[in-house]
Amino acid sequence: MSRSAPSTPDGSAPPPARPRGRWRRSALARAVLDRRGATVGAVLVLALVLLALLAPLISRLTGQTPYGYHPDALDPASGLPAGALGGVSGTHWFGVEPLTGRDLFAIVAHGARTSFLIGVLATVVAVVLGVVLGASAGYLGGWWDRVVGWTGDVIFGFPYLVFMVALGAVAPPSIPRTLLLVVVIGFFGWPRVARVVRSATLGVARRDFVRASQVMGSPTWRTLTRRVLPNLWGPVVVIATLSIPERIGLEAALSFLGVGVPPPTPSWGRSISDAIGWVQTDPMFLVFPGLALFAATLAFNLVGDGLRDVLDPRTAREGAH
């Protein structure tokens, strides 16, 4: 005998069930966007990501690239941009670079691609290393926990900027500088991630479902990957989001010091470094790349704070006191 479909008390069919994962993601997005700062940060992040992704298309549409020289936009006597505000015009939206006449908007837009690529990939490297080492240290404990902790302390105290300057001087030209930056910046970022993940792992490992898995004789790696790691995604998402602006800032600092991506590849840090010598005569050369770097740092921090308030409210409350 066939079984009739369930119905509500008034006899109508019940509404279709929402996919659980999709409902959780939408609820998380709503909770984060309910916070005004996180909303502002998300809008800024979206705008900067679109600027980076669409930079080649914008260059084709406007005819302005970060490599094109425009001596006609310069004062022949001083080499400074002709016109007010560093040469801002309908053709050059952010003005032009002194001496070369390169379009500053194109430099900032393509520099966003460089900064975001290195910042995001370096964060991925740091998060992967930090999650693996932090979770295993927190779950296994003992000598492995001590080794990971000591190694992280050494890396925390290591002058990585000096190391990167020295490495940039001796690294063979055959190694792409972007790859070198991603690996080095990511490597020096894992201890911070590992500390957060280790602390969260210690809490998860004491929960009943993890202990039940251990009592049932489940292999260590299976308990760690199937029971512990899935319950760490909240702190991992928060620390990853907050790490991106730090990695972007490190790339800018290294480019500022002359050991970042080689010219003529656009970079916010190199633009800021080049602008220092012109700050008295052409301050707008410094303003636009500086504002872009500030906006990216602020945006990711606002989004990260919003995620922390939703996913890890205990940490957020502790930080407020």
UniProtKB/TrEMBL annotation:
The keyword Transcription regulation does not apply. GO terms for cellular component: plasma membrane. It is found in: Cell membrane. The chain crosses the membrane at residues 38-58, 78-96, 116-141, 147-171, 178-194, 284-304. Its main location: membrane. Keywords: Cell membrane, Membrane, Transmembrane, Transmembrane helix, Transport. Residues 1-23 are annotated as: Disordered. This is Peptide/nickel transport system permease protein. It comes from Kineococcus rhizosphaerae. The lineage of its organism: Bacteria, Bacillati, Actinomycetota, Actinomycetes, Kineosporiales.
